[in-house]
Amino acid sequence: MAGAISTTRSNTVLTQEDSYRNGHLTKAAFISIAILTFITFVGNFTQLQLSAALPTIVSEFGISVTTGQWLTSIFQLVMGVMVPLTAFLTRRFSTRQIVIASMAVFTIGSLLAWLGSSFALVLFGRLLEAVGTGVMWPVLQITVFSIYPLSRRGMAMGTVGMAMSVAPAIGPTIGGWQTDMNGWRSIFLTLTIIGGVSLIVATLWLRNFGANDKNAKADFFSVGLSIFGFGGLMFGFTNIESYDVAHPMVWAPMIIGLGGIVWFVLRQVRGARRFNEAARFVARAKMGVAVDDGTGTAPSAEAIARAKATQPPLLDLGVLRNRSFTIGTLCASLSFFAFSSIMVIMPLYIQDDRGYSATMSGLIMLPGALGQAISQFLGGKTLDRLGARPVALIGSITLLFGTAMMSTVSADSWIWWVSIWQFVRQIGMGFVLMPITTWSLNCLEPSEVSAGSAVTNTARQIAGAVGAPVLVILMETFTDMRHAALGGGAETYAAANIFGVQWALRISAFLVLCMVVLVLFGVKGDGAGSTRDLTHRALARARAQHEAHRGK
User: Fold this and answer.
1) In angstroms, what CA-CA distances link 207 with 33, 202, 240, 327, 450?
2) Which of 160, 248, 276, 438 is the most buried (most CB within 10 A)?
3) Concatenated DSSP letters of 67-130
4) How many CB atoms lie within 10 A of CB 246?
5) Is the Cβ–Cβ distance between 176 and 357 less than 8 Å?
6) How far is 348 from 356, CA to CA, in rounded Å?
């Protein structure tokens, strides 16, 4: 009897009134948000957890660094492909159904990677982990936006945003320690246990948010196009290490990938146009406005039913017409590109070039995670008070300075020099990533937030997935050039590799500079927090204080 009551309560949909009262979350909403945040934390924690273990895995399987980094890149790429499905999944299935199915797939993937006897099986396990966690951040994001009022979203997103931003930063620390203590497979054993516990907790206590439509359908052909598009482009690019640029294994996948991406974009644009026309048709018919469905007569009930059945595109790129949203998405993508790639490159420098252990590699990167945890929370609160522009400017300039200083590493640098500047970099990340994302979504209409969340998260994940192989290959290209210039030989390879790391970091710094320019000239308008806005707010507060004083 008690179990039946518990199941009924779990399946109840929490409305905004049931979730947020008198400036606080209700108990049921708080527990559910906590569960969603924890599961999202686990998924993002898993993204880069293998970065400190990557040199060990590369050595054990006898593969190249470029091949090994697919363990990180495929995770982010699959997450990027899964994110567009979020809009469909949240329409078609309940919150509980999505989360429970996702954690089941994640647990199976972790189990397979733990027991896998070959690199291919481990890679497939990582793919399943990504499928299982790919929708969790968008689901959490949409839930927060549907519960909190506009004035409280900055703080809320800054708090739950730590699940996305801090988790990948502490992943290498714990992953490195586990690798040294019990081998890299212990990472997947731990994730299998965590996945199983999360599955049980979600089944027992997670509540539903928002209604779902059992008639909703997904455009799985577009899903296939995105897989071939982005996957083909990355596959061809990573083959540059093994083949000449003119080799078919390089240019053929890249052409297929570019073709798939173009086809994907055109299909989404046509789908959005068709859906919007159908929506206008139905709206006019409901208001009794004369419309023509092509027959020269008033629309029939069958025509109206067909229009209602028209499904939205997998990814509604129409939100990119909003200039502020586009600027915010570009900034978030550039920051994720720089962040993800350096989280792969620096453990290689620390372990391969300087000879430190995986545990030491993780500890060196750990202070950055703590810095980002602090700045993530403060950035959200500051966004609510000052607006996005001053917060994002401080963050992007800090990120630029930290990246530029990190590029000065050498063969005899104090190893904690890396830790100091990674700390500075992640302070900047905390101040720029979540505030700029929250501001860009706030610039959309409420009905567009779900589509906007899917677009910005897809762009960010794809940028992160592309960032690692692009900068790793550039690093190895500079390394080979320097190695040849030094006359070859094993004794000069470490010096050449450090040269490659330096130039990869300089390229990353240039990309962050582009982001600073975007923020400086692009973040404007409502919620941006310009000097004029701040002056008006200050004058309003002064008037209110003056009136209060006169009232006394």
Assistant:
1) 9, 8, 48, 34, 19
2) 438
3) HHTHHHHHHHHHHHHHTTHHHHHHHHS-HHHHHHHHHHHHHHHHHHHHH-SSHHHHHHHHHHHH
4) 7
5) yes
6) 10
The dihedral of CA 473, 479, 482, 487: what is its sign? Answer: negative
Q: What is the mean pLDDT of each run of 10 residues along the chain (552 residues)?
A: 46 66 74 85 77 81 77 75 73 84 92 88 89 80 74 69 65 81 88 92 82 71 81 74 74 86 87 79 67 55 70 80 88 81 78 81 80 77 77 89 89 86 88 83 80 80 75 82 77 81 89 89 72 54 62 56
Angle subtended by helix axes 136-147 and 85-92, to nearest 10: 60
Q: Residue 438: what pLDDT?
A: 82
- Beta bridge pairs of residue 208: 13
Q: Which domains does the chain have, with CATH numbers?
A: 9-213 (1.20.1250.20), 219-313 (no CATH), 315-547 (1.20.1250.20)
Q: For residues 405 and 96, give the distance between their C-alpha atoms in angstroms, rounded to a whole number.
A: 46
- Percent helix, percent strand, percent coil in the chain, to nearest 5: 80, 0, 20
Cα–Cα distance measured from residue 72 to residue 361, given in angstroms and rounded to the nearest whole number: 17
Which phi and psi (to 5°) does residue 322 adopt? -75, 110
Q: What is the CA radius of gyration of the chain?
A: 25
Separation CA 87–CA 84 (nearest Å): 6
Residue whose C-alpha is closest to residue 175's, from 360, 362, 357: 362
Helix (H, G, I), strand (E, B) or coil at 14: strand
What stretch of H or E contains 25? strand 24-25
Q: Which of 65, 178, 139 is nearest to 473 (CA)?
A: 65
The pLDDT value recorded for residue 381 is: 72
Contacts of 99 (CB under 8 A, 6+ apart): 35, 36, 39, 136, 139, 202, 206
User: How many Cα atoms sit within 13 Å of 432 on the Cβ side?
Assistant: 34
